[in-house]
Model the fold of this input.
Amino acid sequence: MTDPQTPAGVQAEAAVAAIGEWATATEAYRLLTVDVPAEHWIEALTAARDALGLTFFDWLSAVDELADGFSVAAHLADAGAGPVRHLLLRTKVPRHAAALPTALGVYAGAGWHERETAEMFGIDFTGHPHLVTLLLPDGFEGHPLRKEFVLAARVAKAWPGAKEPGESEGDGPARRKMQPAGVPDPNEWGPLKGTLPPIAERPARAARTPRAAAAGAAGPAAPAAEGAEGAPAPRPRRTRSISDGSVSQAEGAPAAPAAPVERPRPARTQSADAPWHNPVPATADEPSAPPGPPAPPVSGGPGAPAVPPTATEPEPKDGDSA
Done:
């Protein structure tokens, strides 16, 4: 029973005194939890309702504790005037005989929760008038919230974490993957039982020779001993700087400029009927005729070179003698 105005120790002592001397109380996360034996389950619920005033039944469920059995918990509250007070009443039943008396005589709202807990965990609530299937279909076998229950859907379809990041879809060797909770080996349970090949193991590394081990211990950059058989000869180091030039250059003498090497140019052929040799303007009506031989220059034109006149003989007239 949690009351923000009452210290935690006083609340625990008051709850234990009201419920019974066989009860133990602990508080965590601002919630008071009272543990009682299974044989005092109905007595503890009645004391919480009458002595502590927790008249509101919130929920009831269970937790699979494997070898320790099942923990059954009921959350009770007081929703009257003032701050809401909470209490978690908890008990434990063995795994081989999971049974509790029904709480319907104390809280009428416990009927639905007991039906759900019975089909999900397999806990029998003796005295319940209608303990039938609530959520699962008819004919369903097993209790899904038990930790040993096999998740058949995970066996038929690979779960999202079946492959690690970077792994491909190939059939190469891969490491053995861990199965998630509730998923057995598909080769041992399910429709593919006994039909799947074993998972290929990663090939083991080859044994290292003593020489390779010694080389690895010496380090990858360890130089070979001088004079050892098979060791390459050390390369001479360059002792001249960039400003000194190369060894082939004479000291103090300027280097003669190298003569340019003329590369032969490829021969180009021209054709008289090639269209790109005689371009035609876009505004011309008719294509221009191909150019003929160049005409002799005319003297006297501006910018033209002077051409000496050629002597011509006068034509003979009538009566002139030859």
Observations:
- Strands lie at 24-28, 31-35, 56-64, 70-78, 85-93, 99-101, 124-126.
- The radius of gyration is 53 Å.
- The longest strand covers residues 56-64.
- The CA atoms of residues 272 and 292 lie 11 Å apart.
